[in-house]
Amino acid sequence: MAVRERVSPGRMRRVGKRAAGSDHRVRVVVTRFLLIAALVVAGLKLVQVQGFQSEALAAQAAKQRITRIPIAATRGSIVDRNGVELAFSVETRSIAYRPKAMRARTAEANKKLAPNKQLSFDDDTANIARDMARILGSAVSEPELLTKLRSDNSYVYLANNVEPAKARELSDLHPDLNLEARARREYPGGSLAANVIGYANWRMNDPAEKQNLHGLFGLEMLRDSELSGTPGSQVVETEGGSDVVLPGSGRDVKPAVDGSDVELTIDADLQYFVQQKAAEYAKRSGAKSASVVVLDAKTGEVYALANDKTFDPSTSPGGQALNDPAVTTPYEPGSVNKVVTAMAALEYGVTTPDAMHAVNGSIQVADRTVGDAWSHGRLNMTTAGIFAKSSNVGTLLLAQQVGPDRFADMLERLGLGKRTGVGLPGESAGRLPARNQWSGSTFGNLPIGQGLSMTVLQMAGMYQALANDGVRVPPRIVKARIAPDGTRIEEPRPEGVRVVGPETARTARDMLRAVMQKAPGGNSGTAPGAAVTGYQISGKTGTAQQYDQTIGRYSDSKYWITFAGILPADDPRFVVGMVYDTPVYSTSDGHSAAPFFHDVAAFLTQRYNIPLSKEQAPIVPLVQP
């Protein structure tokens, strides 16, 4: 029989206590082990971070707060032929502030200060606004400044185009202000030559370029790479990975290379005068527009290039006359183009100035009948008379003797249908039908200036060839570039093109003096009003019908009015060309641009002290009974 040992209740309690104590010790040991293991892991991580990875992490942190930013180059100036500044840059500053960071810094500082020594963010910003209003005056508004200073934005611009001295004064008073280098483009003449110069500004949609001015129109745009120079750079620290530069953090500076100056062939005083006259005569004639160009007779340099409408690049140019019709807008020249027939007829021995021609009131060319501007029967006209009185019929008689091939060759030599390469953006080549595309009636149009188009610059270029003894020199408007170190680099001079021989040019020039002739018996030319007392003038008037798309033919009421002239005819110095678009033809000023030429020519004689002609142009017979 088995015997069961009896265990007392007291012993059972003692055994349970020993078991519970053993479990507790196990848990304590495990917990201690885990804590030691965690500490070991943390220690190893610390050794790894502070030892093996410290340089890499430091570099990564530095990369997040250090960046290289550009340093703007000073943009070069644009000057006229006499060194008068037409466009230049002024160093300025933009003043900015970091409201969010400054508010947080004030709050953090106040945690360590006694209640009676607490800083006031509102007081600080009020002081900044007050001092800026005092130093910058009406350029800023104190209430608007306070609104910006107390905003929740990370970075706000408080003022732009601030004079550097005033910006430094504000920075000394308030070191928390950020100063950013800027430049402002100045155009001291306002609208003077604005259609030629254009304008420059920041590229507002490109934050990386906010310090650099760039050309947006005209020569400022076309010559931007030369004017802009090469920006430099510097390393700076930024705040919290943003693009906010911490003041005084700049280092590792790579200086900028400033831009070059560009010297033009323009004369600022002459340019001002012809701009005013273009506006005056456009208004007097009721024309939609008027353009004028003045060229050096020998070199083709552009002394003035103006339109009646322009803009002021000192103000926002949006919506203004951002165009230069003198080079971008071609027109049909009308009778001013008869100079081509005159030169060709003399060059090929078809006629002489005093040769007589029987000229009827009209002529048949292919399927069209061409008449003169005035009604007449058969007239005996000299060659000089044909051009002085602008006879379409007489011109076509001479052109037919020249022949279409030789006439086409003369047009080619005069550069028509091609851009002049003057050095301005948007230049038009005009329109000249190719020789193989001429129809029977084409040769009834071209000699009298219809069926082709040109700019006023191209028109003046034809007469420059006449003034320069038969050599056409393509016009140019940039004279030289001046590097930052003062080195002068002349623009390449375009090569001349021989159009006609010297004797032909001089003969044609003398013959066209009769256009300004005033004589009895029907022997007056078409432009006595262009004459300048004491000077021989050679030139030609033009009236061209405008093609009206709405009716599908040439208009009987809309015209281009042109004039091209040489001053003086006996010793050429300048060539002047001008055009009106759709003047009110019923007015005297709408019939001819001769008075416009007279005013410009008279100014030229005074401005450049041009000697009087040695003798008056002789009165020559134009018509005979």
Automatic annotation (TrEMBL):
Kindly give the InterPro entries that the UniProt entry links to this protein: Beta-lactam/transpept, Beta-lactam/transpept-like, PBP_dimer, PBP_dimer_sf, PCN-bd_Tpept
Q: Which domain of life is it from?
A: Bacteria
What SUPFAM superfamilies does the record tag this protein with? Answer: beta-lactamase/transpeptidase-like, Penicillin binding protein dimerisation domain
* Residue ranges of the region described as Disordered: 228-253
Domain Penicillin-binding protein transpeptidase per the UniProt entry, residue ranges: 291-600
Boundaries of every Penicillin-binding protein dimerisation domain copy: 71-239
Question: Which keywords, in A-to-Z order, does the entry hold?
Answer: Cell cycle, Cell division, Membrane
Mind listing the GO biological process terms from this record? cell division; cell wall organization
Q: Which GO terms describe its molecular function?
A: penicillin binding
Record's subcellular location: Membrane
A GO CC annotation recorded here is: plasma membrane
Q: Which residues cross the membrane?
A: none
UniProt cross-references to PANTHER family, sorted A to Z: PEPTIDOGLYCAN D,D-TRANSPEPTIDASE, PEPTIDOGLYCAN D,D-TRANSPEPTIDASE FTSI
Q: What's the family?
A: Belongs to the transpeptidase family.
Specify the protein name. Cell division protein FtsI (Penicillin-binding protein 3)
